[in-house]
Design a protein that fits this description.
Blueprint lengths: L17 H9 L6 H8 L3 H14 L2 E5 L10 E5 L5 E7 L4 E7 L4 E7 L7 H19 L6 E8 L3 E2 L4 E2 L14 H5 L6 E5 H12 L6 E6 L3 E7 L2 E3 L30 H5 L1 H10 L7 H9 L3 H25 L3 E5 L6 H15 L2 H4 L3 E4 L6 H14 L2 H17 L1
Parallel strand pairs: 3-6, 6-9, 10-13, 13-14
Antiparallel strand pairs: 1-2, 3-4, 4-5, 7-8, 10-11, 11-12
Helix pairs in contact: 1-3, 1-14, 2-3, 6-13, 9-10, 10-11
C-alpha cells in the first residue's frame, strides 16, 4: 500500500536532494521555492542552497513571475533545456543518422552518414564521432556542454554492456563494447540500445496515453519494438521484437543470413526489394531508390512493395493476437513508399488477426518519421544523465573540482 503524503510533504524520511528537486522542476511539479518547500518539507534555507546549485550548474533558470498577494513577485524556476546538450547516433546497416540535441531532446543540428556497418565498429564509431564534433560546431555548442551520448545499433543489444549480442547484419560487432569507442572523443556517459527500441521510446513520447504500441521499422532490414502496459519490453536477452527472422509460410526456400530459410527479412525487407528489382532490370542500390521508383509510379515496384507489406502483415497478425496493441506505427526508410506498403500490411493483419484485436487498431506512419531514431537516442541518454542520482553526482563532482582549486 502506498502511503499518501501529508499536507504536501514527502512521505520519505530522507531530505530531498538537489537532484530530486530538479526532477520536480523538470516535470513541472513545482515552479517556486515556496512550492518546493511545501512538496519536500525542507526549510527555506535548505531549498535555497539546493536551488542555487542547480542554477549554477545551468540545469535550472529563474525568471520573475507574477505578483503574489501582499508581497513581491515570486521568482519562478524552470528546466533550462539550453543548459547542455546530448549527442544522438542511430546506426543503420548502410546509413547512420546523427544529431545534437538540447536537454529537452530538441534537435539543434543533424546529418546522416553513408557508411556500412560491415566496415566494423571502430571505423564506424570513429566516423560517427568526427561528424558529431562537426555538428557541435554547426549548432554552436561547446564540447564541454555535452552531457551524454545515445547510440542505437541494429539487432539484439546487451544494453548493460553496451554491445551487440551478435547478429548476422553486424559481422565483427559481437560483444565489442561501444561506449569506450565514443568516450575517447566525448568523456561522458554513453547509452546503447537496439535501433527499433529507441524508435519506440520516441514514439511512446509522441503518443501520450497510448500504453500498448507496436513499432515497426522497415529499412534495409526489418525489426519491431513492443511497448506493453506503458513499458518498453526488451525481453530476457534483449531480442524482443526480432520479427525479421520469423519464417514465412509458402516461401521460395531462400536462405537467410541467419542460417534459416524464408525469413521475413530475406523476403520483404528493403534489401530484398533492391535484390528483386535489380533482377528485373531496375538500377537500384539503396532503399531510397526503391522509394523513388514507387513514387514515380513504377508498376512493378509498387506491386513488389505491396507484396512485401502482405508478408510483413502475416507476421504482424500473430503479434496483434499476442499483444493486442492500440497502434502500430511504421517507420524506416521504406516508409517513403507508405501507401502500397501499408495497404499490404493492413490487408494481411485485418484478414488474419482476431477481430477483437483489430476492431480499434490503428496502423499509421510514425509520428517522428525521419527523426525517431535520433530523438529516441536523445531521450534514452537524457533519462540517465538527468535522473536525480546522476544530477547529484554531477553536482558532487563540481563541488570536488572547486575544492581542489
Amino acid at each position: 500500500m502506498v502511503n499518501a503524503p501529508t499536507r504536501g510533504r514527502r512521505p520519505t524520511a530522507a531530505p530531498a536532494t538537489a537532484g530530486e528537486i530538479f526532477a520536480l522542476i523538470r516535470q513541472g511539479g513545482v515552479a517556486t521555492r515556496t512550492e518546493i518547500g511545501r512538496a519536500t518539507g525542507l526549510s527555506r534555507t535548505a531549498v535555497a542552497a539546493r536551488v542555487d546549485r542547480l542554477l549554477a550548474e545551468g540545469l535550472v533558470s529563474e525568471v520573475q513571475g507574477g505578483a503574489v498577494t501582499g508581497g513581491r513577485p515570486a521568482a519562478r524556476l524552470a528546466f533550462h533545456a539550453a543548459g547542455g546538450a546530448v549527442l544522438a547516433a542511430s546506426v543503420g546497416v548502410s546509413r547512420t543518422s546523427l544529431a545534437v540535441c538540447d536537454l529537452a531532446g530538441t534537435v539543434l543540428a543533424q546529418d546522416s552518414l553513408r557508411i556500412r556497418t560491415r566496415s566494423g565498429p571502430e571505423p564506424v564509431m570513429t566516423a560517427v564521432a568526427e561528424r558529431l564534433e562537426g555538428l557541435l560546431g554547426e549548432a554552436g555548442v561547446a564540447p564541454a556542454a555535452v552531457r551524454g551520448v545515445g547510440l542505437s545499433i541494429p539487432g539484439a543489444v546487451d544494453s548493460v554492456a553496451g554491445c551487440s549480442i551478435g547478429v548476422p547484419v553486424l559481422p565483427g560487432w559481437a560483444e565489442v563494447k561501444l561506449p569506450p569507442l565514443l568516450a575517447r572523443h566525448f568523456p561522458v556517459p554513453v547509452r546503447v540500445d537496439n535501433d527499433v527500441n529507441v524508435m519506440a521510446i520516441a514514439e511512446q513520447h509522441a503518443h501520450p496515453g497510448i500504453d500498448d504500441l507496436l513499432v515497426l521499422k522497415v529499412s534495409t532490414g526489418i525489426g519491431a519494438a513492443v511497448v506493453s502496459g506503458g513499458a518498453l519490453q526488451r525481453g530476457a536477452h534483449g531480442s524482443a521484437g526480432e520479427i525479421g527472422h520469423t519464417q514465412v509460410a509458402d516461401g521460395p526456400g531462400r536462405p537467410c543470413h541467419c542460417g534459416n530459410l524464408d525469413c521475413l527479412e530475406i523476403l520483404a525487407s528493403g534489401a530484398a526489394l533492391i535484390r528483386d528489382l535489380t533482377a528485373r532490370g531496375r538500377s537500384v542500390d539503396t532503399v531510397s531508390a526503391v522509394v523513388d521508383l514507387v513514387r514515380a509510379g513504377d508498376a512493378e515496384a509498387v506491386t513488389l512493395v505491396r507484396e512485401a507489406g502482405r508478408r510483413i502483415g502475416e507476421v504482424l497478425a500473430g503479434a496483434v493476437n499476442l499483444l493486442n496493441p492500440s497502434v502500430i506505427t511504421v517507420g524506416g526508410d521504406l516508409v517513403g513508399a507508405y501507401e502500397p506498403l501499408v495497404a499490404g500490411i493492413r490487408e494481411s493483419v485485418f484478414k488474419r488477426a482476431v477481430a477483437t484485436g483489430t476492431q480499434s487498431l490503428r496502423v499509421e506512419p510514425g509520428a517522428l518519421v525521419g527523426r525517431s531514431g535520433v530523438t529516441g537516442c536523445a531521450i534514452l541518454v537524457l533519462d540517465q544523465v538527468l535522473s536525480p542520482g546522476s544530477v547529484d553526482e554531477i553536482l558532487a563532482l563540481t563541488d570536488l573540482r572547486r575544492a581542489r582549486v
